Amino acid sequence: MSPPVAVESAPVMDGIPSIEQYAAKQSTTFTKFDPKRHLAYTPPLKILKMGDLALPPTALSSVASTEPFPLLSYEALLEHRREIFQPEVLDNCLHHTRPGSVQIRGHAPRYAPFIHAFWNSPEVLKIISDNAGIELVPCMDYETCHVNVQLGPGGVEAARATPLEPPAATEEAIAQFEEEKPKERAVTDQTKPVVEWHRDSHPFVCVVMLSDARHMIGGETELRCGDERTLKVKAPQMGAACILQGRYIEHTAAPVDNMPERITIVTSFRPKDPTLLDETTNMNIRNKSHLTELYYQWTTYRLDVLAARAQIAADELRKRYEENVKNTDNGKKGLCRVETVNVAEVEKWANEQIEYIQKTMYEMRPLEVRGNRVW
């Protein structure tokens, strides 16, 4: 990957300050999310089903992945880049994940109020849910949204100098792109992946490209099918998104060979309905998070789900009791002789919640070192 250079880029929106100016003013003001200004949504032309990957549908959805579709306006893209690459964010939220890339996470809402408002807005949540085939909400603030940055020869220090505007391709990069375009690229080179083959910690993710991808060589997401084939989903263009049921599909990210940068953001989602299957984990994130904050958010989210499940179960019993009393004792409560509580049902429900609590605790087990990695 070539080092960052001064190149022609997309025009700056009038009145948008530099990263430095924005950082100076952020303590007192920030750009308010406006769906009319900040969304450029067009539905995806195609949605891949799990069956297309020779995989069974999950308990949540039959959707595997969307093709990339426009989502962020150019102004929204600049707001994301501006909030992400502030010095405070880089000082506090940047984690060294692997030799060729870093991850920035945990910046919203403290340092990134616009990003937090964007991904929690009803307009964006409807877009994500409609395309995923299930109503979704962000897993936690910590997952709104993390940033994958492919490093060039300048390493982390060059990443700290990331410009507000995405740099466009050089003439050399465009020529290289045109030469490579007719060729069929092999399975992603695992000696230098942006992210190795993995499954996500969360049921669904939405990946958005924050770099100029018009002439990128590489940058695709590659999916492993149930019959061991692999399928590449083309890299989104700048401001475009791809939704993936990443908890249940093994995938990797191809590196970019010819551009100054490859920056993507990933927001993770779980089912809004607390009664649905929730197999969210911390498996890929504990080693790149501030655990004091992560475990607080993780525990409260899990307790909220348990509380909602308990309330639903109690409401169902009250409704059943009211019907029993009405049908057998003229509505007189206090001595109902018809079975309201099916003990076997309650035992099954209780065992499911016990398993959920045990999983909650397991995901906060002590970190361990394996080889040169922390897990």
UniProtKB/TrEMBL annotation:
Q: Give the superkingdom in one word.
A: Eukaryota
Q: What is this protein's name?
A: Fe2OG dioxygenase domain-containing protein
